[in-house]
């Protein structure tokens, strides 16, 4: 009996150790860049030989970097708004509508995920030239909206499935018309899902590298494209600063999204709308 | 309040048919509920009771038939313009609104001003004895309290009719029994028409003025609780309401409803009974005999012989499992404390009953 | 897409009419037609009809050893990445599924942060770590494992390692959600019935986790097949995969028909896998968890 228990405990400890080793493997490469980015020397080293913010200064003094960042932020915001709007409409049609060709539409929804981004990027490169969309905000917004839509649709679908339709019926039986029932009851209760969806869409657009690599032009390019160029030419320490800031921004966005979702969910928690149990 | 005068709170369902694919969920059902009446729609799951309620509410549109509320036909009216109150199975309070905001919501939808809204919502909250709870969120209330808020929300705008879809099924047994009485009292106090869906016969018998029993989309019987229990008109009603022994057999000649007949039992012997419905000659017959209507007498008395296989003591009564009578197992129930003979397992007993308590149905 | 569909949606009297549904779907359909279908169709058209109706571009991809080698390398690397990711993901997903509170939060953060951090940032981190004077080489020398810095970048091993790192969250999350769905009483019941820990794993846990494992492996394999950023930067021209080859054909050779043919081959592969394992493609695992 006790031999078996020791055996079990040893097995559990080995699993735990493996899991935490993988955790370190997952986090370390990204996080180790942060201390290296404050090293003063051109050659990045760990531990850093001193403390200097010169690579951060280099980023903020370079109009090329700043322009790329601003452009990415613009594309990200537009994509987030468009993808959330379009994705929510589609999710509503999928859940509550009688949609002809539904199976085909569902395949289209996952399309941008299963079709490799390189295939899409090259194909868009080909067509965008003719449509004069290369290097335009409109082009990026449309491309990134398409790439973000699968994630938006699935997020909103999950929120709609969690939503208890009897709540909307209750609103109708209280005398609300379909539109007021949606505005007063459905919308506030699926709002946490919509916030997540918009955030996902923004991050996807902001980080997207492959399509951006092909549909940028010389003076209108996104941040990832600019990073790609810099990595290709030389592993400059400015990149370490940019990478660190991007990682910090991601952490911030995830925390912000989590907090916002929690507070919306706290308002919305009760019978019928279980908050999702994920981590 | 709204509905006690004349026909305003009347609900009529005429020849209702609703199909889901090949299935007739509701099959030519007609029923009428008068103003201020409490009607229970009772049946097993899939009997069509919820579909009928949803058609009255306007969440389903029938394939045939009409629905009238008061004098007015509403078959195709959207739910928000029917001015009905509805309480759902789960509490369906809006989780992002306070209790008071929930109750005021229908008033807001009707354009009632803020001050009046609050006053009437508070009054409705007092009606369901939750006066202090207005500022809370639904999630902070117990299940019973939530359901009372749902009722307050459904009556605050004084609808003519209140629809309830198994509103107590999420509550535990004690609370459920308490709420049954409370809803019944509330209904009598404000004189509203109630249509109440349930699969729980005790609940229906306790609360309703009349019960409509449904099976496979068909109306089996519509009557008072006493009618249904004492004089079921179909074998389904006899089996669904209360407990019943069924003895199978055949009938030589046709009989009209109410006629005395003698059924030749499949297990041997014969059994005198009253025809509960018109019975065809030579058809298969089921005779229903309630366990508590069987009198269990000592072996020395007159009557049909049976052997006690098992005696199950349950406090207020003892149930006997009997063998050897009519060639099939039977149950009999002896109430406790009435000083009746309580045989032990293995004992031989005699059975007697009133002829009117044996009711013959088509099998 | 998602299997769980409460019947109340079917019962509900409030379903939108086909016209209204189509109106709601219209913006999506329009956008996808212009930005997704039209470009891919144009590219595939190039590969089949330029200069005249032909299959020669496809034949070329299989006939020339250089290209065949790239395709085989792509398949090999994708398979290795999938295997390595599965190996790393299992203990992580298992411990996550049995953790609560702070432990779970830490593990979840470790999966979600990389998932939402730019692929470029993570690839760049690997380049910094693996370069000639990088942290890994310094460490190896200090440990006395090598005399001089060894070449780590532009090797197949580096590509596999970095890609497994980048794609690991896509393996962990589906396995985690499958494992989380196994009540703790199941393994207990199996052991009470006499199963050894290994038999419990083999007979109870693995079969129940299989949908998650399939889903994770499929996602990782699909993404690895068409991966561009990491192989291009870490593998270099020496370890060229199909995505890099496509890029090279378009940007350097300007050979659109051949690039189209390569994309066509990739698409056939990816679509076949997707249709084969249709139910394993579940995005909700990745979006539902943040």
Blueprint of the fold:
The complex is a heterotrimer of chains A (279), B (363) and C (290).
Chain A: H1 2-31, H2 33-37, H3 54-61, H4 63-96, H5 102-114, H6 117-131, H7 137-162, H8 165-173, H9 178-207, H10 210-215, H11 223-233, H12 237-268
Chain B: E1 11-20, E2 23-33, E3 38-42, H1 49-57, E4 64-69, E5 72-73, E6 85-87, H2 99-109, H3 114-127, H4 143-155, E7 161-165, H5 173-190, E8 193-198, H6 201-207, E9 210-215, E10 218-223, H7 225-230, H8 235-240, E11 245-250, E12 260-265, E13 270-275, E14 284-289, E15 295-298, E16 304-313, E17 317-323, E18 330-335, E19 348-352, E20 359-362
Parallel strand pairs in B: 3-8, 3-9, 6-7, 7-8, 13-20
Antiparallel strand pairs in B: 1-2, 1-4, 4-5, 9-10, 11-12, 11-14, 12-13, 14-20, 15-19, 16-17, 16-19, 17-18
Helix pairs in contact in B: 2-3, 2-4, 3-4
Chain C: H1 8-11, H2 18-49, H3 56-63, H4 65-97, H5 101-116, H6 119-130, H7 135-142, H8 156-180, H9 185-192, H10 197-225, H11 229-235, H12 242-253, H13 256-276, H14 284-287
Helix pairs in contact in C: 2-13, 3-13, 4-5, 4-8, 4-10, 5-8, 6-8, 6-11, 8-10, 8-11, 9-10, 12-13
CATH superfamily of chain A: MetI-like
Strand coverage percent of chain B: 25-35%
Count the domains of chain B. Answer: 2
CATH topology of chain A: MetI-like fold
Protein name (chain A): ABC transporter permease
Family (chain A): Belongs to the binding-protein-dependent transport system permease family.
Subcellular location (chain A): Cell inner membrane; Cell membrane
Pfam families (chain A): BPD_transp_1 (PF00528)
